[in-house]
Amino acid sequence: MPLKVYNTMSRTLEKFEPIHGNRVNMFVCGPTVYDYSHIGHARTYLAYDIIARYLRAQGFSLFFLMNITDIDDKIINKAKGVNRDPLLLANEFTQDFLQDMKGLGMTSVSLYAKASEHVPEIIAQISTLIEKGFAYQVEGDVYFDVSKFSSYGELSHQNVDQLIMHRIDPDPRKKNVIDFALWKSQKPGEPAWDSPWGKGRPGWHIEDTAITTTYLGPSYDIHGGGLDLIFPHHEAEIAQAEAATGTKPLVKYWLHSGLLMVGGTRMGKSMGNYITIKEALHNHDAETLRLYFAMSHYRSLLDYQEPNIMQAEEVLGKIRSIYNQFRSIQTVDTTASVETEVQKLAHKAKSEFDEAMNDDFNTPRALAAMIAFVKNIEPYGNRKTGQGSIAKVLATLDYFGEVFGILRTERTGKSEAFDRVIDLLLAVREDARRRNDWPTSDKIRDSLAEIGVVIEDASTGALWYVSASKSGKESS
User: Fold this and answer.
1) CATH superfamily membership of 4-283
2) Which among 351, 66, 74 has a CA at the least distance from the CA of 211?
3) CA distances from 177 to 32, 166, 266, 398 (A)
4) For residue range 22-54, what is the model confidence (pLDDT) as tens digits?
5) Contact (Cβ atoms closer than 8 angstroms) between residue 353 and residue 400
6) What's residue 189's pLDDT?
7) Which of 186, 177, 191 is nearest to 144 (CA)?
8) Of 178, 129, 133, 138, whose CA–CA distance to 158 is shortest?
C-alpha cells in the first residue's frame, strides 16, 4: 500500500507524491514564545516528529523546517506585564522551548527559524505584495487586501460572507473588515525595525510565509500545524505566498493535528489544568509520553489522562523487557524451522506496521502491530535462539523504535559499566535464591526497583530493564 495522507484542502486521502521526486520539504508552525511550552505543544510537535521519522525511514530525503514566532502581540503584552524587553524575554522562552524539545527526543527538525532573524525577507515580501496590488498602506501600517485574492477561504472551506464574521485586526481604516495586518507601526515600548513604511514590526502571518519561501521556495510538500490554525493563520499564509510568488499551490498536502484536552476541557491556567512540558517530563519518562501520544491518531481529539499514560508506561516496559531479553541471549545453533518462523513473524509485523503508517500515519494501528510482534516473539526469547533470529528481532524492534522515538534508552542510555554492575547484582541475587536466602534476594530486587531497574524472573533466568518512569533520571 503506498503512503496516503489526509489533505485538509481536499478533505480526502491522497497518494503521497513529493514535488521533487524523493525530496520532501515539510514546514510546521512552531510556538509563539511568550510562556513555557505545554503538553498541547508536545502532542502536536511529537506527531510531526513521528511523521518525519517515518518519511526518513522510508527513504525520503526530508528537510523539516519549523519557525519560532518571537515577534508577536502576546510576547509584547507579556513583557509589559513583567517589565522586560520583549526580544530578550522571547529569547529566554525560545531556549526553554528548545530544551523541552530535546527532552522529548524531538530530533527530526532540520532548522528552527526565528522570525526576528528574517525581518529583511519579511519586508521584501510585503513590498512585493504592495507592488502587485495585493496590499495597501494606511499611514505606518500595511494590510493584505483579501478582496484581491479570490480563493481566500479555500482551506477552511468558507466563503467571504462567512469570514466577515471574523474581525481580524480591528481597524476602521481598513478596506475590508477581514483584511489582516502585514506590518504594524511602532507603538511606545515595542520592538521595531526600519521599513519603507516607517519603524514597525511584522504581523504574525507574514513571518511564516517569508520564512518558508526563503528556505523551501514558492511551493513545497507538507505544511503541518494544529487544527486551530487553519483559520485565519494558514488561510492567510496561502493568500500571502501565492499572491507574492504567483505560484499555486503554496502547499501540496495540508496536515492538521487534533486538539488536546485535559480532563475533558480545553487547557488553561484559569482552569487549573495547565501542564507544561517540564512538568510532564518531571512526572513521566519522555518515551512514555511519546508512546502515549502515539496511541491516538494525530488528527484525533485527545484527552490527556494519567491512567492512560500509565498504560503507555506498562506497554513500553514490556517492549523494553523483550528488547533487552533478545539483546542478552547467548546464541546457539537452532533448527531451521525456528529461524524461519521468527523471520516470518518479523516480516509480518513490519508489513503491518508500514501498512498502518501508510494509512495517514495511523500510529495506533502501527503500535498494535508492534505489540503483537512483541507478544509473538516472547516464547523465542529462551536463550536458545540462533543469531539470525536474534538479529532480525532486534532490527525489527530498532525500526519500530526509530520511527516512534523509543528504545533509545535501551540502545544508548546505559553504559557498559552500568550493565556489568546490574548483571553482577543479578548473579548475587541468583546465588541467594539458590540458597533460599529470600531476604537478600528481595532486598536486591527492591533496591534496584528504587533506582528504576525492574527485574523479571523467567524460567531462563532474571531479565532486567530500566522502567519508563525512571529511565533518563536516576538510573541513566
Assistant:
1) HUPs (3.40.50.620)
2) 66
3) 25, 8, 29, 54
4) 999 999 999 999 999 999 999 999 999 999 999
5) yes
6) 86
7) 177
8) 178
Strand 265-266 and strand 200-202: pairing?
A: unpaired
Check whether the bond before 232 is cis (ω within 30° of 0): yes
CA distance 259 to 79: 27
**CATH code of domain 287-466:** 1.10.730
The predicted structure's pLDDT at residue 263? 85
The residue to which cell 538479529 is assigned: 391
Output the 3-class SS for the chain: CCCEEEECCCCEEEECCCCECCEEEEEECCCECCCCCEHHHHHHHHHHHHHHHHHHHCCCEEEEEEEEECCCHHHHHHHHHHCCCHHHHHHHHHHHHHHHHHHCCCCCCCEEEEHHHCHHHHHHHHHHHHHCCCEEEECCEEEECHHHCCCCCCCCCCCHHHHCCCCCCCCCCCCCCCCEEEEEECCCCCCCECCCCCCEEECHHHHHHHHHHHHHCCCEEEEEEEHHHHHHHHHHHHHHHHHHHCCCCCEEEEEEECCEEECCEECCHHHCCCCEHHHHHHHCCHHHHHHHHHCCCCCCCEEECHHHHHHHHHHHHHHHHHHHHHHHCCCCCCCHHHHHHHHHHHHHHHHHHHHHHHECCCHHHHHHHHHHHHHHHHHHCCCCCCHHHHHHHHHHHHHHHHHHCCCHHHHHHCCHHHHHHHHHHHHHHHHHHHCCCHHHHHHHHHHHHHCCEEEEEECCEEEEEECCCCCCCCCC
Among 128, 155, 158, which Cα is nearest to 249's?
A: 155
pLDDT digits (tens, 9 = 90+) for 150-176: 999 999 998 877 776 666 777 889 998
The domain ranges of the chain are: 4-283, 287-466
Cell of 404: 516512534
Please write the tens of the pLDDT for every residue from 96-139. Answer: 999 999 999 999 999 999 999 999 999 999 999 999 999 999 99
Backbone dihedral angles phi then psi of residue 250, each to the nearest 5 degrees? -60, -45
Q: Is 284 in contact with 309 (CB distance < 8 Å)?
A: yes
Distance CA 437, CA 434 (A): 8
Q: What percent of the chain has pLDDT over 90?
A: 71
What is the pTM (predicted TM-score) of this model? 0.86
Confidence grade of residue 400 (pLDDT, cut at 50, 70, 90): very high
- For 173-232, what is each residue's pLDDT tens digit? 999 889 999 999 999 989 999 999 999 999 999 999 999 999 999 999 999 999 999 999
